[in-house]
Every structure is written in C-alpha cells, then in structure tokens.
Amino acid sequence: MGSVFVTERDKVIKDVLGRKQPIPIYLQFVPGLCVEAVHSSESLSYKGTQTINTIIAVPHVTKKLYNKKSIARANEQNRYFPLMRTMHDLPSAGDPVLLCTIGKINYYLGPLNSMENNVTWNKDPNFTSELNLDLSFEYGGVSEEGKSGETSNFNKENQYKRLQKKRKEGLDYGINIGETTGDSIIEGRHGNSIRVGSRSNNPYIFISNQRESSNDFESIGDGSLISITSNGNLNQHLGGKGLDNFQLASDTIPANKINRRMGEIISIVNNGIDTNTLLYIYGSKLTDRKTFDGNPIYEGLIKNQMLLHSDRIILNSKGEDGDIYLSSKRDVHIGTGRHLTISANEDFIIESQRTFLGGTPTEQMESMILGDSLILILEELLTLLGATTSNMYFPVPLAIAGTPLKQYMDTLKDKLATIKSNKHFIEPN
Fold this sequence. Notes:
Blueprint: E1 4-14, E2 20-27, E3 30-37, E4 55-59, H1 68-72, E5 79-82, E6 96-102, E7 105-109, H2 144-147, E8 184-187, E9 193-199, E10 202-209, E11 224-231, H3 234-238, H4 262-269, H5 275-280, E12 284-290, E13 296-300, E14 302-309, E15 355-357, E16 366-369, H6 371-387, E17 399-400, E18 403-404, H7 405-416, E19 420-426
Parallel strand pairs: 5-7, 15-19
Antiparallel strand pairs: 1-2, 3-4, 3-6, 4-5, 6-7, 8-9, 9-10, 10-11, 11-14, 12-13, 16-19, 17-18
Helix pairs in contact: 6-7
C-alpha cells in the first residue's frame, strides 16, 4: 500500500491507562521505486486495458518483505494507477516515484526529480542494496541495472539538459538583469518539449523535437520546431551564441547563372525593401543601442508570427470533401532550391491581374501570344495569299479583285498587335 502509519520513538503520548505510546503519523504519500511500467498489452504485468499506464512499485516506507518474482508478475498489491486522469508521466523501471492509497486504490506520482536534475534519467536516492530487485530472469538475462530494478532496454547514455529561460535583450523588460518570468514546460526524456510562456507580458508557445543534448533552450537547430510568438523576431527568440540564424532554406542554395533566390524576388515585388527587413527582423525594430561586442540591438514589437520548421513537412487533406486553403491578406511566397511541381487531375487555374513566367516585372519580359487570335490572323493571311493571282509577265503589284494586296497586308499588320497579351508575360530565350 502507498499510505502508511509510522511512529517516532522520541515522540510519545499517554493512553487512557497512563501508558506511553509512540505518536502515530499518517503519511499520505510515501517514496517508492518503480519495478515495472505497463506500456501496452505486451508488458509482462498487463492484465487488461484498465492496467495500461499502471506501474508495479515497491514503497520504501514499509516493513514488509517482498518476493521479487511475485512483484514482477504483478502482485496486485503492488500495482499503482496514475493519480491524474488525463495527464501522467509514465515512469521507467528504476525511477523514483511517490505512492499513495485513496479510496482503497493505489496511485503514483512521478517519476521524481532527484539531485541529478536531469530529464533523461534520475536514480532513486532511497534505493539500498538490501532491496535486490533483479528482474532480469523475466527478460532472459542478468544485468547490473536489474539489481536496482532498472531495465537494460532504457538508453541513458545521451542525457539531455533541462530547458532554461535566460533573459533576452529587447524582449524581457525591466531593470533587474538576469531575472525574467517563469514558463510552463513539459519535457520529454530525449530532447522534446512543449513550452508555454512569455517574454514580459507577451505570450509564446514552442513545440520542439530532437533538440541537441548540449542545448538548454529551443533553437533553429532543433530537428523539428513549431514557434508561435507575439513579439520580437525569430532570431531574438531562437538564436543564440554559436547557433545559426534563421534563413529560408531555398536561399541557402548557391545561385546559378540566373539568380532565382526567393528573398531577392520578395524584395523586388516589395519595391526594393531590404530582404532582411521583410523576412528576418519581422516583429522588431532597430534601436540606437548596441551590444558590448558592437552588434545592433532590436526591440520587440507586438506582431504575431508562426514558424513551422523541419527537414520534411507534409500537408495532407484526406477527406472526400477535404480541401486545403492557403490565404493571405497580402502576399504568398513559395521558394524551392530545386523543382516546384503542381499536378491536378482536372483544371489548373491561375487568376491574376498580370502573370510573369521566368522573371519579375522589372526585367525585359515579352508578352505571351493569344493563340486563337493568332490563328484567325494566319487563316486570313493564308486565304488572301491563296486568292492572289497574276497573269502579267512584268512586275506589277499583286491584287485581289482589283484591290492591291498591300492594302490587305496593312490591315493584317494592324491586327498583329491584338495577338500580344497585355497581362501575361514570359522570359525571353
């Protein structure tokens, strides 16, 4: 059981007969050791779906001797359920936990944070060698980890640092250097986390996966990252000493003979505004102050921004009536270091006031040809040429029914201007 009565010998009371008795102390939570965690139906101590996320544990505050084999085979007296209904952190074998019994049901909290202050693994500080819980017989081998109730399947080699929150220049306000507000953080064992916090009174959310074990904060270098901020630029939030600043992946590709970098095109269509201003310092303004090493300081502005950052991103709408909508009140920019492909089983429609293929409006673009108009003019020309006759043996102007051919040709020249599009253009060869 997880709740017990204990006594202290040096603290006594007298009963009704005047006899001295130790004062009983009721402990709702007692420290314990997780012996096995039931992750799925494949776990040794699985006894139905109601036992998923339960643990087999041994309380340290007890005089009872345990049979390690009976514990491993899920003696129900040693089964503990998650205390919280919807939120729980399932321990691994060997993790320290807190145990309690409420309404004749055993519950656990944990795993506990010991002196290592490490998110990957914390040894049980209350474990003693007398409590040999070698369960390796159940797994077909003998291991040093098994002697302390640990499983050899858990990799503790690459241990991750706990996330920190250091003061950020331009984002955290106030005069107390080294002081900021605390965040609510959920940390996994191997470099994944969810942070719900703020800079000053401006909220943010970070969802990070595959963080480097040496990093103690989220950054552009994380394997995958979702960043939701309400002020400041991305590099203010996610940059740091020794880390690369954020850059569009398509702009990291070396330019070929014709430079088609996304950042430069964005600058052109925005009247030549600096790309850094448009992309990388959005949500901040440059101040007159500089850091101790001479770098400029940016002050945060209240501008909401969201970043989805990973090696591969897939958006998939699978329903029969499922659609994907991309909408922007201003611009939509798409850049790629190689190919951009669009496939459609039915129509491919582009509606715009003007269309440019292969270049930007500032380049010497040529007008696209209206195919139907061109065919009509060519058909008329061929008809005229087919009707032209001459029976003379000396040069005379060609004519059709007495009307000079040149007159018809001049009319066709005037029509040629109509085959050029005034709205859609293409890059010349």
